Amino acid sequence: MKKTLVAALTVATVAGSLVTATPSAKAHDGIGAGLAAGLIGGAIVGGAIASSRPAYGGPVYVAEPGPPPPPCYWQRQRYWDGYGWVVRPVRVCY
């Protein structure tokens, strides 16, 4: 539903910008109206594009603050890497 609404808003914005009739440019005309129309149109289209998909591919869940995590420590563990035993430091947390 959200994507459909964003697509409809984008089509309406583009169609509206194509339909508007602009008078011929004159040297004594200011640029205020054109600048305002460009900023407003850019904000609408940019907002529609930015809100069309989440930043990281899905909803973001925020965990409620809880007790502090237990302390962690470093431990040396050995593992087989396919060629021989290797010892590496590993962070262990409870």
Index terms:
single chain; 94 residues; alpha+beta; two-stranded antiparallel sheet; 2 helices; 39% helix
Provide an overview of this structure:
By secondary structure, this protein is an alpha+beta fold. It has a domain at 69-93. 39% of the residues lie in helices and 19% in strands. The chain is built from 2 helices and 2 strands, in the order ααββ. The protein has helices at residues 2-19, 32-50, and strands at residues 72-80, 85-93. Strands 1-2 form a two-stranded antiparallel ribbon. α1 (2-19) packs antiparallel against α2 (32-50). The chain is elongated. The two termini are 44 Å apart. The model has no long low-confidence stretch (mean pLDDT 77).
**C-alpha Rg, in Å?**
29 Å
Strand content: 15-25%
Head-to-tail CA distance between termini? 44 Å
* Principal-axis shape: elongated
Separate helix tally: 2
Largest beta sheet: strand ordering: 1-2
Order of helices and strands: HHEE
Mean pLDDT: 77
Structural class: alpha+beta
Q: How would a textbook summarize the main sheet?
A: 2 strands, antiparallel
- How much helicity do the residues have? 25-40%
Number of strands: 2
Low-confidence stretches: none
Organism: Bradyrhizobium shewense
Signal peptide: 1-27
Keywords: Membrane, Signal, Transmembrane, Transmembrane helix
Transmembrane segments: 31-50
